[in-house]
Automatic annotation (TrEMBL), chain A:
<keyword id="KW-0732">Signal</keyword>
<feature type="signal peptide">
    <location>
        <begin position="1"/>
        <end position="24"/>
    </location>
</feature>
<dbReference type="InterPro" id="IPR028082">
    <property type="entry name" value="Peripla_BP_I"/>
</dbReference>
<dbReference type="GO" id="GO:0006865">
    <property type="term" value="P:amino acid transport"/>
</dbReference>
<dbReference type="InterPro" id="IPR051010">
    <property type="entry name" value="BCAA_transport"/>
</dbReference>
<dbReference type="InterPro" id="IPR028081">
    <property type="entry name" value="Leu-bd"/>
</dbReference>
<keyword id="KW-0813">Transport</keyword>
<comment type="similarity">
    <text>Belongs to the leucine-binding protein family.</text>
</comment>
<dbReference type="Pfam" id="PF13458">
    <property type="entry name" value="Peripla_BP_6"/>
</dbReference>
From TrEMBL, chain B:
<feature type="transmembrane region" description="Helical">
    <location>
        <begin position="196"/>
        <end position="219"/>
    </location>
</feature>
<keyword id="KW-0472">Membrane</keyword>
<feature type="transmembrane region" description="Helical">
    <location>
        <begin position="101"/>
        <end position="122"/>
    </location>
</feature>
<dbReference type="Pfam" id="PF02653">
    <property type="entry name" value="BPD_transp_2"/>
</dbReference>
<feature type="transmembrane region" description="Helical">
    <location>
        <begin position="12"/>
        <end position="35"/>
    </location>
</feature>
<keyword id="KW-1003">Cell membrane</keyword>
<keyword id="KW-0029">Amino-acid transport</keyword>
<keyword id="KW-1133">Transmembrane helix</keyword>
<dbReference type="GO" id="GO:0005886">
    <property type="term" value="C:plasma membrane"/>
</dbReference>
Length: 404, 295
């Protein structure tokens, strides 16, 4: 008799153990870990950098710090803009650190590499820092998502504005890697579509200090617009030196195709005034964005650009998707990410396409002159709002094999 | 229009001039490195950081004390030179007796630390520094518009290089310096304070880097990373010129600046490696460098 009680007690205990994990419904390792992998020491360290990590932590805190009753943790690392280093870190995170998803991933070459390896590892990536449309084009992944912006949106926004203003002939200064090519190609196609011509392009290595040679070539081409298909410190130096060589005074216009609040802040309004640029976020747009930006500034000392606000949005959306799916299983979460609309401070009415592209409105800005700017970080005038459907390629035209 | 290999002559002239301007920076920086290596046998990896410190000193003097470019041109090298002297006294002087590798490792670590601190304080996009009023504007040379400031950079660096060369090769102080490195014990026996001379030398090298930094501030973004990008190129310049050769460093600096400028026209993608290709070829044919003495 005694053995009967004992065995039922054991069976009961065993049952209890079997049902316990079911209560925490398929959250692996009883923790949700989000990795922010980006450039924290190089040319893009202000573009995203440690402030993206802060934005991710803010998102987790605003979400309550837990999802489905397990804690959420954010980890971060510096990929130094190198695809091999980034791949090693991502692999280690997945294999030994129980990281569930990797985000930010500034630099297109890095973004493509990490998205490809995450596809094999069945882990979700949400890219908020890289530009290439390839991420949701031919190299798209069922687990790969692209938030914030891409080269198509930059071409339509900044490129479109300059073509409209009469800039018909273009010459490109292009960063010599995946991102630069993608941005140049997208913009060149757009310019030609609108009836303009492309006179030529010169490719410069990433992290070039001196642009005078390249600028002189652009100058002698006689093009009306010099398209800067580069980013970060490269674009800053190019703009500064273009003024020095009298290029802008000579009537040629500069198109800083990828330029954000962080770079405008570094360059100063003296040199940046009058530039057109396109972002999907500006802090001084609504009461909600101002409140968010103020909290962000208190933590970091800087105002957020679209990458920072977009990383906040990506983390929030991921956590919402995990909650809705009731698990952190990548297939279920990816399905929810595609299904749920995005409503947050970054994207008031965003949605995710079948190819993983998040679609939200973009804003064409003009950088204010020093006399127009009345407060710190009062840098932009919003010239036009570009509806998401026009700013981003429809999934059917993206070339992504997932869309059929 | 006259063309050379399909490139208009005018464009080519412009590129040569631009190469000369960049060469001025290479010359000025490699000069400091060559002085430090030639006299102290220290491979100063902190040179890029000292160049960056010079630019930041100019920026902070302007923002903090309202001192303009011309004050900075004098004060920044003095401040960075003093900083160099402290570093030499406290740390480097203890490493002379050891393998040169220790000096290299120490200065490399120092560079990483300084750059890390500035990145933490000022972020990586850096801050702008405007061209001084007097040197604004451009001159039309017929084949290009030369910014007056860039012309000034060429002149200032040429003068600085000549002065340093003169001090080391033609003055009594220079003679003491050279003697102290040849045979420190004997020179000390004549009653000359050799450790002080070595401190001065390192301070001079650091000051030269800072001088280049101030010259660079209005052209480039003043950023913590500005030295990192440059230091490796400058090392290649010193190696091509011949380690420790002062004239070699200056001449090679200008020459490689021009070579790089031409590459930017004919094969832009290769412009950041052309200097290293030249370095490899020179090392194959003349292992001691173009102006180095065969050991």
């Amino acid at each position: 008799m005694r053995s009967y009680y004992l065995s039922t007690a054991l069976a009961g205990a065993a049952m209890a153990f079997v049902t316990l994990p079911a209560a925490a419904q398929g959250i692996s390792d009883n923790i949700v870990k989000i990795g922010i992998l980006n450039d924290q020491s190089g040319v893009y360290a202000d573009f995203g950098g440690k402030n993206s990590y802060e934005a991710a932590r803010m998102a987790v805190e605003d979400f309550g710090g837990t999802v489905l009753d397990v804690p959420v943790q954010v980890v971060t690392a510096d990929h130094q803009n190198k695809a091999d280093i980034a791949s090693n870190i991502a692999r280690q995170w997945y294999d030994t650190q129980q990281v569930d998803t990797v985000m930010e991933l500034t630099t297109s070459s890095v973004g493509l590499a990490v998205q490809a390896l995450s596809k094999d590892a069945k882990k979700i990536t949400i890219n908020t820092g890289a530009a290439t449309t390839e991420l949701t084009g031919e190299q798209c992944s069922p687990y790969g998502f692209h938030w914030v912006y891409d080269t198509h949106m930059l071409a339509v926004g900044t490129g479109g504005a300059l073509v409209e203003a009469g800039g018909e002939s273009w010459y490109f200064l292009t960063a010599d890697y995946a991102f630069g090519y993608s941005l140049e190609e997208n913009t060149a196609n757009f310019v030609k579509e609108k009836g303009g011509t492309v006179l030529g392009a010169v490719r410069h290595p990433l992290a070039t200090n001196d642009f005078s040679s390249f600028l002189l070539q652009a100058q002698s081409s006689g093009a009306q617009v010099i398209g800067l298909a580069n980013a970060g410190a490269d674009t800053q130096n190019a703009i500064k030196q273009a003024a020095e060589f009298g290029i802008t005074q000579g009537g040629q216009k500069l198109a800083a195709l990828l330029f954000t609040l962080a770079e405008v802040h570094g360059l100063g309004l003296d040199a940046a005034q009058g530039l057109n640029l396109t972002e999907t976020f500006y802090w001084d747009r609504t009461d909600e964005t101002r409140a968010f930006a103020k909290r962000f500034q208190e933590r970091t000392g800087a105002m957020p650009n679209m990458v920072h606000a977009g990383t906040y949005s990506a983390v929030t959306s991921y956590l919402k998707a995990v909650e809705a799916a009731g698990t952190d299983d990548s297939d279920a979460v990816a399905a929810k990410l595609r299904e749920l609309p995005v409503h947050d401070v970054f994207a008031p009415n965003g949605r995710v396409q079948a190819n993983g592209r998040m679609v939200t409105d973009a804003y064409l800005m003009r950088v204010k002159s020093p006399s127009e700017s009345t407060a710190p970080y009062d840098y932009y005038e919003i010239v036009a709002t570009i509806p998401g459907d026009q700013a981003f390629l429809p999934a059917e035209q993206s070339g992504c094999p997932l869309v059929e | 229009m006259t063309t050379i290999l399909g490139v208009p002559l005018q464009a080519l002239l412009g590129q040569l001039l631009v190469g000369l301007i960049n060469g001025s920076f290479y010359a000025l920086l490699s000069l400091g490195l060559a002085v430090i290596f030639g006299l102290l046998r220290v491979i100063n990896f902190a040179h890029g950081a000292q160049y960056m410190l010079g630019a930041f000193a100019a920026l902070l003097l302007l923002k903090g004390l309202g001192l303009n470019y011309w004050f900075a041109l004098v004060l920044a090298p003095v401040l960075v030179g003093l900083f160099g002297a402290v570093i030499e006294r406290l740390f480097l002087s203890r490493l002379y007796k050891l393998d040169p590798l220790y000096g290299l490792l120490f200065t490399f670590g120092l560079a990483l630390t300084i750059e890390g601190v500035f990145r933490w304080l000022y972020g990586s996009s850096g801050q702008p520094y405007s061209v001084p009023e007097l040197l604004r504007g451009t001159v039309n040379l017929g084949f290009m518009f030369l910014p007056i400031y860039r012309g000034w950079v060429v002149i200032a660096s040429l003068v600085a290089c000549l002065v340093v060369w003169f001090v080391i090769e033609r003055t009594k102080l220079g003679a003491y310096l050279r003697a102290a490195t040849e045979n420190p014990v004997l020179v000390q026996a004549f009653g000359i304070n050799v450790p002080l001379l070595l401190t001065l030398t390192y301070a001079l090298g650091a000051a030269l880097a800072a001088f280049a930094g101030v010259l660079a501030a209005p052209i480039y973004q003043v950023s913590p990373l500005m030295g990192t990008n440059l230091i490796i190129v400058v090392f290649a310049v010193v190696v091509v010129g011949g380690m420790g050769s002062i004239l070699g460093a200056v001449f090679t600096g200008y020459m490689l600046g021009i070579a790089e400028g031409l590459t930017k026209v004919f094969f832009p993608e290769a412009s950041n490696i052309v200097i290293f290709v030249i370095m490899a070829i020179v090392l194959l044919l003349r292992p001691a460098g173009l102006f180095g003495k065969e050991a």
